Amino acid sequence: MRRRPLTFLGLLAVLIAGCSGGGATGADRAAAKTSSTTAPVATPTGVTVTAREYGFDIPPELEGGVVRLTLQNDGKLKHEAVIVAVGDTPLARLKQDLTPIVKGEGKPTPGYVRFQGGVSLVPGGTSAASTLALPAGNYVMVCTLTDADSLDATAGPPPARAERFHYELGMAVPFAVKATNTAVVPATDGTILARDWSFEVPALAPGTRTFTFRNDGEQDHSLAVAEFADGIDPGAAKSAFDAFLAADAAGKTPPDDLPTPDDVAFAGPLSSAGRATFAVELKPNRTYVFACYMTDRTGGPRHATGKGMVAYATTPAG
After folding, report:
1. Tell me, what's the pLDDT at 16?
2. Choosing a second label site near 263 at 20 to 30 A (CA), which of 17, 74, 286, 311?
3. What local confidence, expressed as pLDDT, does residue 160 receive?
């Protein structure tokens, strides 16, 4: 299993283990409607950011409100665009304060840091998008991946430079939001709610789906999604993931014969009241794992390993 970026905050694959609930799509669809059929409807601001080794091409000022952010990766390595609200804090201080968070060291999160979501794990030569909320303020776009995140699992130990976070190499670019639109987040196929410390997951259906990830908790949360292979039922998936979490908490290597889920999507990280959309391809008759690898803002263990913030969901056969 691969080491996770900030969004995953750790060494394990994106996963699941606790309870799953039922999320409904009605609130999303209602939010997308206006009270008047004649009044013009504001549309999200469209922003395309280009990533490369090692930098972002992004305007110094954006229109905020609801933003449709597209990350075009023109590099060869995987990159991501995580948006951090920083207030008046200097860039050098953010880089310093971000590293313990990315490493999942369990230290307190500085009060000025607020996560607004982004686009994660985009392979070189491809693009991905997310619709998210950006109030007026000062931000920094960062990539918390390393070169090692682009290496094949069988490639052997990466070179020393490959372990450096991309934001340390130049992928930390400030921008500001002054004007904001009045758009709403468009309707999606459902909402996955994060609370302190659980997920509420709607019923899943096979196909290409777009979901809203919303943080209704007071703590920062992220959403990592992974897929177990065909034939691994929910009970076997939970047993395997419990074993992975136990091994991780103990600093041990999990058994080689455990079924390992594949990463398929990520959303966030989001601070309290944040929301963002993400897309995922769901296969029939598969068990999916949902996990949060953030820590409490006062410090402590990662939510998946220390708070049990994991959930299952299984798609129907057809």
Report:
1. 32
2. 74
3. 59
pLDDT in tens, 157-206: 556 567 899 999 999 999 999 999 999 999 999 999 999 999 999 999 99
Residue 302 CA to residue 52 CA, distance in Å, equals: 30
The pTM (predicted TM-score) of the whole model is: 0.85
Number of domains in the chain: 2
Q: What percent of the chain has pLDDT over 90?
A: 76
Query: In terms of domains, do 168 and 239 share one?
Result: no
55 and 126, same domain (yes or no): yes
- Bridge partners, 132 (sequence order): 67, 276
* CB-count burial class (<10 Å; 0-12, 13-18, 19+) for 26: exposed
| Residue 254 backbone phi and psi in degrees, to 5 | -70, 155
**Same domain flag for 302 and 195:** yes
Strands (E), 108-220: 114-122, 127-134, 137-142, 172-180, 191-195, 198-200, 207-215
The band of 143, judged by pLDDT with boundaries at 50, 70 and 90, is: very high
Q: Which two tokens stand for residue 76?
A: 């060869």
Q: What is the CATH classification number for the domain harbouring 146?
A: 2.60.40.420
User: For the chain, first and last CA: distance in Å?
Assistant: 29
Chosen domain end from 147, 180, 213: 180
Domain that holds residue 142: 44-180
